[in-house]
UniProtKB/TrEMBL annotation:
Domain Piwi: 418-693
Family membership noted in the UniProt record: Belongs to the argonaute family. Long pAgo subfamily.
Lineage of the organism: Bacteria, Bacillati, Bacillota, Clostridia, Eubacteriales
Gene Ontology molecular function: nucleic acid binding
Protein name: Protein argonaute
Amino acid sequence: MREFNVITEFKNSINANNIEIYIYKMRVRDFENKHNENYDIVKELIKLNNNPTIIFYEQYIASFIEIQNWGSEKYIDVEKRIITLDSNEKKILERLLLKEIKDSIDKEKYKVIKNSIYINKPVYYEKGIKIDRYFNFDININCNNEIIIGFDAKHIFEYINTLECEIKNDNVKIGDKVKDYFYNLTYEYVGIAPFTISEANEYMGCSIIDYYENKNQGYIVNKLPKDMKAVLVKNNKNSIFPYIPSRLKKVCRFENLPQNVLKDFNNRVKQKTNEKMQFMVSEVINIVKNSEHINVEKINMLCGNIGYKLKDLQHPDLLFGNSRAQKYPLYGLKNFGVYENKTIEIKYFIDPILAKNNINLKKVIKFCDELECFSNMLGVKLDRVKLKDKVNFKEIKIDNEDIFSYELKKIASNYNETTIVILSEENLSKYYNIIKKTFSGGNEIPTQCIGFDTLSYNEKNKDSIFFNILLGIYAKSGIQPWILKEKLNSDCFIGLDVSRENKVNKAGVIQVVGKDGKVLKTKVISASQSGEKIKLETLKEIVFEAVGSYENAYGCRPKHITFHRDGISREELENLKNTMNNLGIEFDYIEITKGINRRIATISDDKQWKTVMGRCYYKDDSAFICTTKPYEGMGMAQPIRIRRVFGSLDIEKIVEDAYKLTFMHVGAISKVRLPITTYYADLSSTYGNRDLIPSNIDTNCLYFI
């Protein structure tokens, strides 16, 4: 049977060296703001010239046609020509082509919101929820002047009712995320204000109505009832201020969808691979059909026609107890146990609500006994340690967050060992962060939280439930349940990530992984970073820690290190070159990206699209690979992109290593989409920014699993 391999990108039939554009050079007015200072100028030029397709990049403004009217602005120089292959000029044409696509859409069918193109008609509008489908595009010009356009279709969820209606329906609680969809700003809901929008308040020194009228924005409040109650919201700087409830909606996320809507989404909205590929190709041709400089031909989506080579990567063999090999953790653990046999000292914390109910308490005790017995069979003894002081779980008050947090701090000194926390589902959702902050963040106690509903297992699902719970406990206790049978191509891997939360950037907890896929070290690099870059001194600390960890594990210095990074920094790379050269260690610097606006699929003679796990399309220094295979009901698999930014390892070897590391997530029996280098770095930096793991973590224990 013949197969045709397709990627959701196409090679434009018009090359960059066939497109002339006007390039205007502008003077730099503010060096600190040079990346954005032409934004307002371009907005004005679009109005003055009735020409929407004008863009800027750095100190350049560009258009396909001459800009006649400049108002009060002046440019230094202008050229009408094709671009050079300089990175800045490629970026100029890429932006201009993307702007042309957005400006030329059929507005009866589509609309532009920010950088995405939405289908006007929602795919779902029921039960208080609206679901829209939209497309993201990205454009890249390669060294052969070829214009490559990638695309993907996604969904976004929104509540139909405003916050005003949701409050009347008693469907809002303090702490909910709310969003002003007019300005695209997100806040935290604090509560109903003790004043109306027409009454003066201490926050503004006037009423909300007066506030907008003073800003010449009376149109926002003119038609609102003056007795409408204001609400209080909090921004990411913890500042509280009043807001008009009819301008806000609750933030709607997939994981928070009501069960009846989730069922509708899975059955009626989510597309299977075959349906999605046919839909995307058809819609993209429609979207770009009016673009003067874009021309789509289906044949230019075949991988062979746009320069990709294909390779199918195999599932690696894993080593379990007694170095016995198996491909799948479920069977490897069941048949051979864990790779490392150790004893873990444990303690339990039981939800006071559960402890007060004899039936529930007996169920908890039975579960604890069975869990310990199951772990013994895997080769890890869970040694139950008595609390120093007698703790009566029934007496612990759990009325609200403040009281529970205080009660936990009183008994925290009793817990120095790995702690298994069993809570009702409601309290688990409510107090998870408090548990983690008090035990893990504040006292360096590894904790495994379990919802009470999980204890209602049967013989059919018992094994998978117990495996996942125990793997979480083992990972937090530094036990390696399996390793790779075959060594990786690089000696050592370092995962780097900068987490951003509340506009604070920190280098993530670095992940150092050995040549057998084992996590050698996880360590907090706590210095705040500028933007997405990691400072020189922080980089040096990361490298020294990694080399030291490798020497401790393998008795020699690594000859080659591979850095995995989500996003790149040229300055960071140059600093790495100097440090690694001084140490005499070769290295590769690899960008691994998950949000790439691409899907990859195969169509056979039977005309059915499918995704194949392990299938890799590679070209030059980059590759796209499908690392998962969700069942059809979950929708279509999303590939990741792997790109060599610097180094000498062959791209096929780089991809092979990264793929094998997606099987090394030891916190669950199911594999993950990303290699553990970047997956763990991302998880740990997010947990670190929220104070859910120790601030001085320096261990092989994975607190963030």
